[in-house]
Design goal:
By secondary structure, this protein is α+β, with helices and mostly antiparallel strands. It folds into 2 domains: about 5-95; about 110-350, Bira Bifunctional Protein, Domain 2 (BirA Bifunctional Protein, domain 2, 2-Layer Sandwich). It has helices at about 5-20, 25-35, 40-50, 55-95, 110-125, 140, 185-195, 235-250, 305-310, 325-335, 350; strands at about 130, 135-140, 160-165, 175-180, 200-210, 220-230, 255-260, 265-275, 295-305, 320-325. β7 and β8 form a beta hairpin. It starts with a helix and ends with a helix. The relative contact order is 0.10. Bound molecules: adenosine-5'-[phenylalaninyl-phosphate]. Adenosine-5'-[phenylalaninyl-phosphate] (FA5) binds near residues 263, 298 and 326.
Length: about 350
């Protein structure tokens, strides 16, 4: 071993140790310049080869080139290792489990669902059982059994979506017309047919009307029907029940008005309205009350004795009241919404407010 090969071996040893200690790009670059650069340690040895005798030149040249190759490979490896370590530490940062979590966007119930549930909560506390019925209904229940036979002018109160097909009716009639129920009142009859008094039910459900829409009318609406049949039920019970319901829903300051109205299935019939929440009550351009000061929430009345008798109950013994309210109208009052069409327009900016 010559002095020069010793020197090469020590350059290799020292350089490899120094490279392993280089922790960043700047340290690696300084190392490269010092060892492999133009005036670097190993380069110096290679340059000096020319001054050696032929035999030694061969040995030293081969050894110096071998070490140069090793150091260059070690340099590449060290660069790659540092690059990977840097990447891994950014990935570790991205998964920092101590950071607070990103808040999840929470869904919510549709405002009409919320209001329907509130309406029913109050009626359940007042002793009503909640039941449901079919949205696709027979003409016979939607109209006939409610004392609205074909060609009766009262049918005009409910513009109707009819089905093309006819089905077998309850009386075995093969040609019973089918419709989308226009109100929940058919459930009065369906429930009375299957249950004995005393009856106290609340029936929520969707209804459909083939009518032009405006700020207080939609072609799809939800109603909640109430039916109470028992001995000794009077108009006072109807009034008391609805007033207590309105107090629990809207608070004591909302005015509730019952005024005379007509529905073929009740006698007497009333309409229940609350004072306008949108205007002082006298603004003719108000979309909610049109200057009347009132928004109608429901129709109601004493169940017609003929309907009670038709289900096999003695109308002398049993009387009852019924009511059918619009859930969207109640929601308008509760939530201060002045256009009913907003509820089913599916605009998340509107819905997210409730
Ligand atoms: C009826 O539907 C009767 N079945 C109510 C009834 C039940 C009377 C039991 C007597 C005894 P009316 O068509 O008025 O009546 O509708 C009742 C309520 O549903 C209205 O007061 C209103 O709150 C709501 N409503 C009716 N039509 C619409 C509509 N197009 N859009 C939104 N809400 C409506």
């Amino acid at each position: 071993m010559s002095e020069t090969t010793d020197r090469i071996a020590s350059i290799e040893r020292d350089a490899l140790a120094a490279l392993a200690a280089a922790e960043d790009d700047a340290a690696i670059e300084a190392w490269r310049t010092r060892v492999l650069g133009r005036s670097g340690e190993l380069t110096g040895v290679l340059r000096g080869i020319g001054g050696l005798d032929a035999d030694e030149r061969k040995v030293v040249g081969a050894e110096a080139n071998r070490v140069k190759g090793i150091l260059e490979a070690a340099l590449d490896e060290r660069r790659e290792a540092l690059r990977r370590a840097a990447l891994a530490s950014t990935e570790a940062d991205a998964l920092d489990v101590t950071l607070p979590g990103r808040p999840l966007r929470r869904g919510r119930l549709h405002p009409i669902t919320q209001v329907r549930r509130r309406i029913l909560d109050v009626f359940e506390r007042l002793g009503f059982q909640v039941i449901e019925g079919p949205e696709v209904e027979l003409d016979a229940y939607n109209f006939g059994a409610l004392r609205i036979p074909e060609h009766h002018p009262a049918r005009d109160m409910w513009d109707t979506f009819w089905f093309d097909e006819e089905v077998q009716g309850p009386d075995g009639n093969e040609r019973a017309p089918l419709l989308l129920r226009t109100h929940t009142s058919p459930m009065q009859v369906r429930f009375m047919q299957e249950h004995e008094p005393p009856i106290r039910v609340a029936v929520p459900g969707k209804c459909y009307r083939y009518e032009a829409t405006d700020a207080t009318h939609e072609w799809m609406l939800e109603q909640v029907e109430l039916l109470a049949i028992d001995e000794g039920i009077s108009m006072a019970n109807l009034k008391g029940t609805l007033q207590e319901w309105a107090r629990q829903m809207f608070g004591p300051s909302r005015k509730v008005m019952l005024r005379n109205s007509y529905f073929p299935f009740v006698e007497p019939g009333v309409e229940v309205a609350v004072d306008c929440f949108q205007c002082p009550g006298d603004d003719p351009s108000c979309p909610v009350c049109r200057g009347s000061g009132w928004l109608e929430l429901m129709g109601a009345g004493m169940v017609h004795p003929e309907i009670i008798a038709a289900q096999g109950y003695d109308p002398e013994r049993y009387t009852g009241f019924a009511a059918g309210m619009g859930v969207e109208r109640v929601a308008m009052v509760l939530l201060g919404v002045s256009d009913i069409r907003d509820f089913h327009a599916n605009d998340p900016r509107f819905l997210a407010q409730f």
